[in-house]
Structures are given as structure tokens and as C-alpha cells.
TrEMBL record:
Known partners and oligomeric status: Homodimer.
Keywords: Metal-binding, NAD, Oxidoreductase, Signal, Zinc
InterPro entries: ADH-like_C, ADH-like_N, ADH_Zn_CS, ER, GroES-like_sf, NAD(P)-bd_dom_sf, SDH-like
Pfam family name, one: ADH_zinc_N
Residues covered by the Enoyl reductase (ER) domain: 53-393
SMART domains associated with the record: PKS_ER
PANTHER family: SORBITOL DEHYDROGENASE
Protein name per UniProt: Enoyl reductase (ER) domain-containing protein
Requisite cofactors: Zn(2+)
């Protein structure tokens, strides 16, 4: 792997078939004319490599051959576990997530773990056969944010499955070795892939300085709300209340360690009654609120429910513009803290998993293989929501 090697580039010949989910009336799935066995035989051909992957083609899902350049400080990883994130579903539905817009074919997926198959000449920390979890963002390492230790804010970040950067829902990925973290023996590849969403919760708790005297409110019991719950418990929060519209997800939150939960209505816009219910459920002042839903209503509830001098952390990414009561919050000096991805979280996440302080296994509710039929089904399940929390591909 000493000399630079470029993986063979190109797209498979494709035919169309309908995606059955009715709300995705613009979404179709591209089927490869090449069989999987032929794809496997294409993987090594002389000095070039090919890689089967899942890519977006303007409201379409399809198989492609991905090109990636390797070098002396990178490793080639055979993907074994890749989770579906809410952003993947957003890209499929609308070709955008927040201010990130898909303008050309893009391989999706960024929650991933796998087994190293090849290492660069200068890589000494990892070896062929190591099981690793991948941190999906490659920062420039030179800007003021990178040098200041906040590389998650790098303006030149190359992040898996964030336009126009390809993601990890592929059978092979080349990645910098220092962004691949060896899994402890008792941590599975699926758990390794879960380090990515867990990192969001861990980073949020660090930003909010969660500790044994911090009472926490979490708005939203989706995957990010639940990993934030796990992280807050690991950071020794004495009381955690979680809020959602879905009774099933609230019951899951209870099993994961929430002290109390509050079911609210999605249709009621007056939040005063909800704030009262939440504060009664907490039974004491709310020090920190994590808004993991990213809605105007949840942000308003968060600002109103949090104690004077407390903190509201914006974890969920919602609309670019929302109407919220900032003046009353400012008068009470409620600090509003932005949360964007994470930094330096993988070692701590892996230690939490190794020690058993955090168990992410209950979050993985559905598993699928890397085949055309099961890829379609996996995204249907993830888009429907319902009892699905984390949908995982086993490659």
C-alpha cells in the first residue's frame, strides 16, 4: 500500500424499480445489472480496486463502484457494520439535510465499523485483521479551529455522506489510520458502529459539563435523544427526564435509565401546560436541557422549562429559521449552546462500552444484509419509524 492506488471509478449499468413506501413517491431504487458474484470478482484487478456501495442518484438509491485514493498513512477497511442515520433518510427524501444539499451522486452512510485488510507503509498503530470503529470526519488539521482543538468546526471538513463526500455504506473504505479506533475484545462491530451516534451525546454532555449535580431534561426520544440519555447517565447526572410524543420510545428510554418521562402532544402549540408537566416530573430545577428534536416547539419548551442561569443545548438539527422566545430566556441568562457533531470522543465511547457503563445494544432494533432487496427494506423500516430505533446493516 506504499504507492498511491486509486480504486477503479465508474457506475454500474442500472435498471429501475419502484420504492414501495407511499410517502416516497419520488423515490426509486436502481438495480445493478451486474450480479453480486461478478461484483465480488471485480474487487481486485491488477493494481486497481473496486468497491460496491449504496449511492444516491436524485431521489434514487443504487449500487455504484466507488473510487477512493489510498496512501502511506491510511488503512483499507472491509466494512462489517453500518447504521442508518436520520440524515441518510433525509437525503433520500429531499436530497438535503439542514443546509447540506446533494447535487451529484453520493454514497451514503457514516456510522460504521469494520476489519482492516491493508495498512499504509507509515501505519504502525494498526494491523491487518484489527477490528476498528471509524470516526467519519477528516479535518484539514491546519485551520484555527483544528489548531484550537475544535476540529469538528473545521470549514474544510470532509465528512462521510455529507455532500459531496462519499460515505461508508460500501464493502470497502480507505480512511486515515488515526481516525480508526481499535475495538476492545468485548465490544462488537455493531457496537463499534454505534460509537458515531453515541459520540453526539457524549460531546453534548461534555459541552454542557454534565456531572453528579446536573439535573437533565431531554427533548426527543429518537436515536440521538436516547444516546444523549445514555451519555448523561454515564456522566453521573442524578435525575433525567425525557419528553416525546411516542409512547414506545419513552418506554425504551425508561429501560435505558430515564428517571421520568413525559408524553406530549404533537398538535398542541401552547407549551405552558407542557412546561408545567415537565417541571413537576423533574421535581426540582432543570439545570440543562438537550433539545434533540430540533423543532421550534421543543426549543421553546426547552428555553421555558430550564432554570434561570441554566443551559439549553441544541443537539437536533431542524429548520434554518424558527420562532422562539429568546428575550425571556436572555433576561434569565439561560445559556444557549450549539452542538455540532463531536470531537475526541471515540476513545471515551469505547471505554464506556468496554466497561459496561453504557450499553447501546438495546438501540439496535433491526438488522439487514447488504443486498438489493434488504437495502430497500431497511430504508423503508427506518423511514417509517414506529418501533425502529437503529437500523443496522451487516455487510
Amino acid at each position: 500500500m506504499g504507492e498511491k492506488r486509486t480504486w477503479q471509478h465508474g457506475l454500474l449499468a442500472l435498471t429501475l424499480s419502484r420504492f414501495s413506501l407511499s410517502s416516497y413517491h419520488h423515490l426509486v431504487v436502481l438495480r445493478p445489472l451486474l450480479s453480486c458474484s461478478l461484483l465480488d470478482s471485480l474487487e481486485e484487478s491488477g493494481s486497481s480496486l473496486t468497491c460496491r456501495s449504496i449511492a444516491l442518484y436524485w431521489f434514487r438509491l443504487g449500487f455504484s463502484i466507488l473510487s477512493v485514493e489510498s496512501g502511506s498513512v491510511t488503512v483499507r477497511v472491509r466494512m462489517k457494520a453500518v447504521g442508518i442515520c436520520g440524515s441518510d433518510v433525509h437525503y433520500l427524501k429531499t436530497m438535503r439535510c439542514a443546509h447540506f444539499v446533494v447535487k451529484e451522486p453520493m454514497v451514503i452512510g457514516h456510522e460504521c465499523a469494520g476489519v482492516i485488510e491493508e495498512v499504509g507503509d507509515e501505519v504502525s498503530s494498526l494491523a491487518v485483521g484489527d477490528r476498528v470503529a471509524l470516526e467519519p470526519g477528516i479535518s484539514c488539521r491546519h485551520c484555527k479551529h483544528c489548531k484550537g482543538g475544535r476540529y469538528n468546526l473545521c470549514v474544510d471538513m470532509k465528512f462521510f455522506a455529507t455532500p459531496p463526500v462519499h460515505g461508508s455504506l460500501a464493502n470497502q473504505v480507505v480512511h486515515p489510520a488515526d481516525l480508526c479506533f481499535k475495538l476492545p475484545e468485548n465490544v462488537s462491530l455493531e457496537e463499534g458502529a454505534m460509537c458515531e451516534p453515541l459520540s453526539v451525546g457524549v460531546h453534548a454532555c461534555r459541552r454542557a459539563n454534565i456531572g453528579p449535580e446536573t439535573n437533565v431534561l431531554i427533548m426527543g426520544a429518537g436515536p440521538i435523544g436516547l444516546v444523549t440519555l445514555l451519555a448523561a447517565r454515564a456522566f453521573s447526572s442524578p435525575k433525567i427526564v425525557i419528553v416525546d410524543v411516542d409512547e414506545h420510545r419513552l418506554s425504551v428510554a425508561k429501560t435505558l435509565g430515564a428517571d421520568e418521562f413525559v408524553k406530549v402532544s404533537a398538535s398542541i402549540q401552547d407549551v405552558d401546560d407542557e412546561v408545567d408537566k415537565i417541571q413537576k416530573a423533574m421535581g426540582t430545577e432543570i439545570d440543562v436541557t438537550f433539545d434533540c428534536a430540533g423543532l421550534g416547539k421543543t426549543m421553546t419548551t426547552a428555553l421555558n422549562a430550564t432554570r434561570t442561569g441554566g443551559k439549553v443545548c441544541l443537539v437536533g438539527m431542524g429548520h434554518n429559521e424558527m420562532t422562539v422566545p429568546l428575550t425571556p430566556a436572555a433576561a434569565r441568562e439561560v445559556d444557549v449552546i450549539g452542538i455540532f457533531r463531536y470531537k475526541d470522543t471515540w476513545p471515551l465511547c469505547l471505554e464506556f462500552l468496554r466497561s459496561g457503563k453504557i450499553d447501546v445494544k438495546p438501540l439496535i432494533t433491526h438488522r439487514f444484509r447488504f443486498s438489493q432487496r434488504e437495502v430497500e427494506e431497511a430504508f423503508e423500516v427506518s423511514a417509517r419509524g414506529g418501533n425502529a430505533i437503529k437500523v443496522m446493516f451487516n455487510l
